[in-house]
Design goal:
It is built from one helix and two strands. It has 77 residues and is of the alpha+beta class. The chain is elongated, with a radius of gyration of 27 Å.
Length: 77
């Protein structure tokens, strides 16, 4: 498995108890990569819209599914 390699500059504090690694020449994000996901309000709005769309498909699928299941179950000896 090969991943992206990043050079780092190691830095040890004066008491020699903490090592800090600072990326040197880190790769820039790709041009098409998203830079901003959104704030809490847009995230909640997206979740609610997705939930409502999913709920519509559950209701639309549940009504015929229950009917077909009831008919199939009633025809069992």
């Amino acid at each position: 498995m090969s991943g992206q390699q990043v050079r780092v500059a190691p830095e040890v504090n004066a008491s020699a108890t903490t090592l800090t690694l600072t990326p040197v020449g880190a790769a820039a994000p790709e041009a098409g990569a998203p830079q901003f996901i959104g704030d809490a309000g847009t995230t909640v709005a997206g979740v609610l819209i997705g939930f409502l769309i999913g709920l519509i498909f559950v209701i639309v699928g549940a009504i015929p599914g229950c009917s077909i299941g009831g008919i199939a179950g009633a025809n069992q000896p």
